[in-house]
User: Which sequence fits this backbone?
């Protein structure tokens, strides 16, 4: 049978017109599938990272974050007479408004730093640095979002609160003024009706309406009421030994009996006039 050339255009007209659009739809389906696969991969990676952070935090809590963590080498108290002591390098350890408390003991003699509540009207302090015995939830949050770091390391002591800071050091360690100011009182530090060391009140230069109290030390004989003190430079006295008469909570985090000086900030009493 002869091929009719006039029928060729009609035969070509029978080719499906949706072939190009079908290929386009196929490519779109492949692209959507690839997007879904990539999204699932990212979600899986995120879950793996979160799981790793949780396991690391759990491990730190189980093996390094407990209350029995102890600091490194403690200088024996018997060596105090022959060991030359130095002034502390300027380092802020706590804040209260315009008052910045400097470390009152040389860094190489500090055994541990802890915070607790005081019951004599002391004001709450803002610790500087990071809490070494923070809880699991805090560790996870800080591990994911950052924060909670810095120096110095400090411990939250029993009962909570931050109105008193204990700076641990061996007995006899030199204690320096934590603020610039003027000594306004030197009196015995009384425990169970007996005097053990001294309590020194300093009126800070930056906040005359407040008092910075330093206790559990033997006052330097050269120190008198009215003496102007410079933070980290003026010697107030030496760490007293109170471990024999009362339990030192700081001992949980040191290699010794936990002796220390305590620093608090209180509102200065208002003198009656007229």
Assistant:
């Amino acid at each position: 049978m002869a091929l009719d050339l006039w029928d060729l255009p009609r035969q070509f007209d029978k080719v499906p017109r949706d072939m190009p659009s079908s290929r386009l739809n196929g490519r779109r389906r492949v692209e959507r599938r690839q997007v879904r696969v990539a999204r699932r991969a990212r979600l899986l990676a995120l879950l793996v990272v979160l799981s790793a952070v949780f396991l690391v935090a759990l491990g730190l809590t189980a093996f390094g974050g407990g209350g029995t963590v102890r600091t490194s080498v403690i200088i024996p108290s018997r060596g105090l007479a022959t060991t030359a002591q130095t002034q502390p390098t300027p380092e802020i350890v706590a804040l209260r408004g315009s008052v910045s408390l400097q470390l009152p003991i040389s860094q190489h003699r500090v055994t541990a730093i802890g915070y607790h509540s005081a019951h004599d009207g002391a004001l709450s302090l803002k610790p500087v640095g990071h809490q070494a015995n923070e809880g699991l939830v805090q560790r996870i949050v800080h591990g994911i979002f950052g924060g909670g770091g810095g120096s110095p390391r400090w411990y939250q002591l029993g009962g909570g609160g931050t109105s008193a800071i204990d700076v641990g050091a061996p007995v006899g360690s030199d204690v320096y003024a934590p603020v610039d100011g003027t000594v306004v009182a030197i009196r015995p530090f009384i425990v169970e009706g007996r005097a053990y060391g001294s309590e020194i009140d300093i009126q800070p230069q930056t906040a005359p309406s407040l008092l910075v109290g330093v206790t559990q030390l033997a006052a330097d004989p050269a120190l008198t009421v009215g003496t102007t003190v410079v933070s980290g430079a003026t010697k107030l006295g030496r760490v007293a030994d109170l471990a024999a008469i009362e339990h030192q909570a700081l001992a949980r985090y040191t290699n010794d009996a936990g002796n220390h000086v305590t620093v608090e900030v209180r509102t200065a009493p208002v003198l009656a006039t007229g």
About this structure: Residues 88 and 106 are 4 Å apart (CA to CA). The chain has two domains: 18-63, 90-267. The first helix runs from residue 8 to 12. The helical segments are 8-12, 19-63, 136-145.
